[in-house]
Amino acid sequence: MPHLTGFGSNDVTVEIRYLRYFVAAAEHGSFRKAACVLNVRVSAVSRRVRDLEDQLGASLFQRHAGGVCLTLAGQRFLRRVRVALQQISDGAKDVAAIGRAQEGGIKVGIFSSLASGFLFELLRAYDKEHSGVLVELVDGNPAEHVLAVRQLRLDVAFITGTATWDDCETEHLWSERVFVVLPCAHRLVAKDEVSWHDLSGESFIVSDAAPGPEIHDYLVQRLAGLGHHPAVHAHYVGRDVLLSMVAVGRGLTLTSEATTAAQIPCC
């Protein structure tokens, strides 16, 4: 049963239900009318108010044939009880709003371009449906995000790949096409689609940071099955620098469909 309590030797534990009975009786000037409003027995209101008075050590009402009226102690108590009940009600509404994702905030780890694609549309739709929720985006690699989720520093993370992670719940949400990034003068630029056979014998470059290692493994898996072991060189650079290196002919690389909305230099 919900109750209010204090932290001193003279503090009193009071059930919230008793306080509601007290307020109803004070507002209607009658235990009978209060019971009708609260949809309980008159005896329940009378008994609980008496219990409350016994707990407080003071009479809150003067009883008379026509009903009840507040004593001086009851008048002072009523002002404080109304404030307390309103705060409890407001607090419950705030918590319920957060529980329904109408308010509050979430921290989201991302490891994908937001220029377009599934994640872009997902976040845009979420903002529209839950405008009162502050979404804080945190960029990083999959391992960092998984650690942050485990340590409760992130609420959710969107990462690439299909690996399972201990102590985490995972769900496959979407797939994207893979694009090869070519310099403008490359022999394959005129083709609408490029096959893995077309890429055999090509030299590739990837970032040493994520998702470079994943792209490296993906290239080896795809091309090794065709009898070719690709030359893949890792560089300690970010995505923008890597794409510029492709533009000047240092090698090819792969990128996801979501990143293709970004401007990529070609010469």
UniProtKB/TrEMBL annotation:
Keyword set includes Transcription regulation: yes
Domain of life: Bacteria
One MF annotation (Gene Ontology) recorded for this entry: DNA binding
Keywords: DNA-binding, Transcription, Transcription regulation
Transmembrane segments: none
SUPFAM superfamilies documented for this protein: Periplasmic binding protein-like II, Winged helix' DNA-binding domain
Occurrences of domain HTH lysR-type (ranges): 14-71
Family statement drawn from the similarity comment of this UniProt entry: Belongs to the LysR transcriptional regulatory family.
UniProt name for this protein: LysR family transcriptional regulator
Organism: Siculibacillus lacustris
Upper lineage: Bacteria, Pseudomonadati, Pseudomonadota, Alphaproteobacteria, Hyphomicrobiales
